[in-house]
Amino acid sequence: MSFIQKGTKAFLKTNAALFFGGFSTFAIMYSTQPLLPEFSREFHITPSVASLSLSMTTIALAVSMLFVGSLSDVKGRKTLMIFSLIAASLLAVLTAFVPNFHVLLIFRVLQGIVLAGLPAVAMAYLSEEIESASLGIAMGLYISGNSVGGMSGRIIIGTLTDVFNWRVALGSIGVLSFLASLLFWYLLPESKHFEPRPFEVRKLLKSMTNHLKNPVLLCLYGISFFLMGSFVTLFNYIGYQLLAPPYLLSQTIVGWIFVVYIVG
Length: 264
Description:
Elements: H1 9-29, H2 36-43, H3 47-50, H4 52-75, H5 77-94, H6 101-115, H7 122-129, H8 135-163, H9 166-187, H10 201-212, H11 215-243, H12 251-255
Helix pairs in contact: 1-5, 1-8, 1-9, 4-6, 5-6, 5-9, 7-8, 8-9
């Protein structure tokens, strides 16, 4: 069976599907970041507590990704990614109706768990299905979808919160992500080179242990941890400053702060 080649219809469909998948994943994941001041105001919580709506999702995602990749070896790449996107989208819609912050956190943790299905599996799918000469382009387009989703999701959230309220904003992101999930399902070609393998806990744990003993990988993990931690923390709390005196910016304008994603 041949691999998907650049310039073919299958290549375009694959890249479009993973672009929509990346958009949906990161639009949902970071959807609460512009809303932290709203949560503080409505639920009477401190900024640090409000930030848990993003931190808990990120932690759940990180832990789940350790195991989801191996699960896809059993269930199949496309099946797991579709489940991930649709489940996360439906949970995003439900967050619009939460009665309190505790329930919101529960939904956000569940979102983090199911969202792991795409980022943990997408690269494996591309590596199996795309010809090696075109793999870099395909991976780059997928990552661009992640960035566009993270940026535009925040902008949409900020604008809709200004016009309506944060509940309408979160529900709308859920609906948009659900539509993107359906496009992903329709466009992504079935796996042709996937070979199912049994889930082996011992093998997985051994692999993790070997990675943690590698000093080069540990340095890379540390760099990623501190850079992403600083990056996310800055955007978590900058909204509080920009909404307050002396700036008094609107939620819409604060949402557009995330357009700096384009630079990266």
